Amino acid sequence: MRVAFFGTPAPAVPALEALVADPRVAVPLVVTNPDRPRGRGYELAPPPVKTAALDAGLAVAQPVKASQVSEQLDSLALDACAVVAYGQILPSSLLAIPSHGFVNLHFSLLPAWRGAAPVPATILHGDRETGVTCFVLDAGMDTGPVLATRTTRIGLDETAGELTGRLAALGAPLLVEAVVGLIGGSLLSRPQDHARATYAAKISSDDARIDWDVEAERVHRVVRAYNPVPGAHTSFRGARLKVHRAQVVPGTGPPGTVIAIDDRTGAPLVSCAAGAVRLDEVQPAGKRVMTGAAFTNGYRPVGERMT
Fold first, then answer.
1. Between the CA atoms of 21, 27, 32 and 37, what dihedral angle is there, to the nearest 10 degrees?
2. Sequence-separated contacts (24+) of 282-291 with Cβ below 8 Å
3. Tens digits of residue pLDDT in 67-79
């Protein structure tokens, strides 16, 4: 079975590796996004999928627009294409090239959380369960018929980064079986219930700003949902303070106020509209990530307000 792979970030790498490792599948081409500037020096760096593909000896294409690989795909006599977090909308003309279409691995239980950021959305919403879905791409936004799903519980303190890593590992073998089953005819697709669809829009930095005028549980979810990117943040002494990890604790006071220091950990306790949160890991502007205790020792913040 001849299957091209489309993907870009690190969470797509396990699926590529699973396809390459399966003796039933040949991967004649990997399509990923162009190299991007990174780091303080803004040097060009390859996407993780490109690095993994080259390490496996695979051919790689990096079109600015996905449609630019149409002729190349057409020449490969593909049975299907597999897609994981490619990062571009694929035109209908491209979807029609493989004989069995494109199979996408999505990090939610569709039709829940269609769109660009399903993992943060499921954490923000307070879902206790999520999973991965393999479906056949069509012209809509994650609207195609479903081939297979797998579910998993969400940890009470699990961050979006941690959950994404688990879903990538959970989905990799499922994508292989979905692609093989579709091509071989052993797996039938089923339509989604569009009336139950929810949507996860692309995230901006403003979305990750902490609102202290909500309950502590909501603040905790915001911190988890935006770890590692873009990072939940607030203002302290006129500068941005990122909050990477927090925990819900009892406490009362004006929202955003550092009301006390935790006796056990030394981390600051910040009051919310209901309850409080303990700031276990933070990052002041221009500094490295530090523990809540280190922040307390360096800033002595009791009585001050975060906004």
1. 60
2. 282/241, 282/242, 282/243, 282/244, 283/231, 283/241, 283/242, 283/244, 284/236, 284/239, 284/241, 284/242, 285/239, 285/240, 285/241, 289/242, 289/244, 291/265, 291/266, 291/267
3. 999 999 999 999 9
Q: Please report the sign of the dihedral spanned by the C-alpha atoms of residue 286, residue 290, residue 292, residue 296.
A: negative
3-state secondary structure of 26: strand
CA distance 279 to 276: 10
Distance in angstroms (rounded) separating the CA atoms of residues 110 and 112: 4
Cβ-based neighbours of 55, under 8 Å, separated by 6 or more: none
One-letter amino acid at 167 equals L
Residues with Cβ within 8 Å of 140's Cβ and at least 6 positions away in sequence, in order, are: none
Cα–Cα distance list, 296 to 43, 216, 278, 303, 306 (Å): 36, 20, 11, 12, 14
217, 203, 83: which is closest to 157 by C-alpha?
A: 217
What are the backbone dihedrals phi and psi of residue 168, each rounded to the nearest 5 degrees, phi first? -60, -40
Task: With CA atoms as reference, report the closest residue to 187 among 176, 175, 179, 197.
Answer: 179
Please state, in angstroms and rounded to a whole number, the distance separating the CA atoms of residues 193 and 96: 24
Least Cα distance to 4 among 34, 30, 32 occurs for 30
Q: Are 193 and 143 within 8 A, CB to CB?
A: no
**Residue reference for tokens 């280190």:** 294
**Residue 208 pLDDT greater than 90, yes or no:** yes
Q: Which of 97, 91, 94, 110 is nearest to 171 (CA)?
A: 110
CB distance 32 to 51 below 8 Å: no
pLDDT digits (tens, 9 = 90+) for 197-206: 999 999 999 9
Rounded to whole angstroms, the Cα distance separating 78 from 100 reads: 8
State the pLDDT at residue 12: 98
